[in-house]
Amino acid sequence: KRLVVLVSGSGTNLQALLDAVAAQGVESFGAEIVAVGADREDIAGLERAERAGLPTFVCRVKDHASREDWDRALAEATAAYEPDLVVSAGFMKIVGKEFLARFGGRCVNTHPALLPSFPGAHGVRDALAYGAKVTGCTVHFVDDGVDTGPIIAQGVVEIRDEDDESALHERIKEVERTLLVDVVGRLARNGFSIEGRKVVIP
Ligand code: GRF
Predict the structure, then answer these.
(1) Taking the alpha carbons of 82, 84, 87, 88 in that order, is the dihedral positive or negative?
(2) Is 111 a catalytic residue?
(3) Which of these, 63, 115, 164, 195, is most buried using a 10 Å CB contact count?
(4) Can you give the residue range of the structural domain that contains 124?
(5) How many whole angstroms from its chain centre is CA 121?
(6) How far apart are CA 126 and CA 118, in angstroms?
(7) Closest-lying ligand 1 atom to the alpha carbon of residue 45
(8) CATH of the domain at 153
(9) The pLDDT of residue 52
């Protein structure tokens, strides 16, 4: 299977996928990463992709006349690599209609909270501020809402009294990387179906 990974930041989730493919080999992992896309330049995620010898593309909202134009450009840039699955790994933009028309049902996102609690851009901060005692991460399919698509897998992380946002996020990201690698590998190897809100991986 062919994967396009979308990133906006440090790209440690991308790195975990790259490492898993390198360690297990494309055959046994079930997929190869064919390109990495981003919504901004000069991020560590793109450097990781370049270091791995992968093609990259950048699609910035500000280079387009409208959000719809950006969405179409992102969909076209992604489609050029003919992915079977798209992985949004810390991609901090909400994709639009055109992107979903092409990749809906085969685009996976990772979110640093236990959805449906604490969706949005500040999942870690919001769980902490709420006083939750456990949080975690969720790997789910992308739909037209904000972190609302069918859930594939979740990992739990305890919140400690002394936690601040960055300490907690680091512990979540450790669980998140393992979860994402596991989910993407299983989806790629086994195939899947989405039945309402239920994701079935045979
Ligand atoms: C992850 O926790 C992701 O869920 C969140 O941003 C983080 C991205 O980390 N939205 P990285 O860029 O993969 O290191």
Answers:
(1) positive
(2) yes
(3) 115
(4) 2-200
(5) 13
(6) 6
(7) 12
(8) 3.40.50.170
(9) 98
